[in-house]
Amino acid sequence: MRTLGIESTAHTFGAGVVRNGSILSNVRDMYVPDEGGIHPREAADHHVRVGSGIVRKALEEAAVDESDLELVAFSKGPGLGPCLRVGATIARVLSLKNSIPIVGVNHCVAHLEIGSLVGAGDPVLLYVSGGNTQIIAFVKGRYRVLGETLDIGIGNMLDKLGREMGMPFPAGPSIEKLSSGESVPAISEEEGREIELLELPYSVKGMDISFSGIMTAALALGRKGASVHSVCHSVQETCFSMLCEVTERAMAHIGCDEVLLGGGVACNSRLRAMVDIMARERGGKSFAPPSSLAVDNGAMIAYLGQRMFEGGITHNMEDTVIDQRFRTDMVDVTWKASREMGIMETPGTASLETGQTAVPGTVLGRGAEALITAEDFGGIPVVRKFRLPKGYRLPEMEGRITPYRIRNEARMLNAIRRVGIRTPYVLDVDMHCNFLVMEMLKGPRLARLLNVMDREAQGWALREMGAIVGRMHRNNIVHGDLTTSNFILLGDGEKLNLGLIDCSLSERSAEIEKKGVDLRLFFEVFSSTHEGLKDRESDFWQGYYLENPDADDVRKKLMDINIRGRYMSDR
Known about the structure:
By secondary structure, the protein is an alpha+beta fold. The protein is built from 16 helices and 21 strands.
């Protein structure tokens, strides 16, 4: 099957031809504004000017006549409305003129699907582009968003930062060069100045991240005299370390040992190297498509369109209306086998049964930050949580993050226990060797079993989780990493209860916004990895309302957060 794909979501108009999964051509032309960022109408005008020529060139390079095409695919969204309409219009004309089927595809999913060409099996996907930053896994027929940016996409942040510093659009390649000490034509910098790692906000919230504060802080440092090279170096190292951390947290949560990079920012060699280090340290593998397929391009649209068509999907003309907010998790993926989330195991770790004590030396957990092993502490069964040095993070950054999180976890475990929530007692803290020794909570992580528990037990677990979170919020404590992996199923005889762990990202806060974000993080990951239990979310709210008199205010804030443009979906 010969398929033409058309890409026009933002600054790039691209066209590519794919035949039976093989790429025959991939041609693109990018709109570059004279100043500032992308102007949607001007970008659309660019696409109108070059569109027909790009399509013609793609067909010529593929040695395919227009009349030989058997399918035309186009980017339906997400993206800039005026730009999307240009590509959709050209695709409709070709479909009607040549009497061939048409398919509108999700631009983000196209970035992800092209990863199969580089050998990735069933990975966690780190999708980093101008408008999007998401951590994704394919579960139960959809690409589920496990985490994402809370404000601005990484690519847009880099472009805005570069624009403020006098760099041409797009700024990512210039920032990459400057961060390693190279020069770029647009920037004059005093030679011989040492490149320093400047301290910037490290904004990780569970599997979500925030970039806008980093940009503000970086510009402030520049105004105070920091070198352009140091600012760019520090922004890259901070942002990319955050991306590696949240991706690893997602891998640990769902028990995956592969990661795939996608999106234009995935062309950055430093990011590729850091993700590869992270994956190899976990005993896994990383994959990244070549740069020509990582950036916005028509070949990936054709490739996905062909897969969709072979999976039985075609669109009528009325189905080809663009969707600027076409989220990744809105697409029913009918063309590939789906991962079923039953018992969730982390490779290389053991799980306790309720009430069971582990043999010393047993590895009980390997998260994004720590290796957790069973130990004997003067005859007491304990766990040692050793914070592994992260090879992807520079030592100076590691030296700031690790001690803070060790101290914070010890403090917050105690604070949460004092409001009546079961947490492990901390028995020893070793700041030199970077570990905590804690009471062993004798039971499995709830994430492991929740999908296969009977309905009554699932309802109980949701109510208990809601009550725990409600009690924390009532006492102005935000957990910061609310997933079912951080609840432990405990038992005393026939009575079950839940314990709470992994509080290094927790904080004291009375802000309704932070409590709303805490819940958004919970439901985002919950709906991704426990999709079959969405009808039981009312049980969570029942427990939450029982413990938190301000539940209505927090729930309204959660609704407000969920209808912000970045998060809107059909969920």
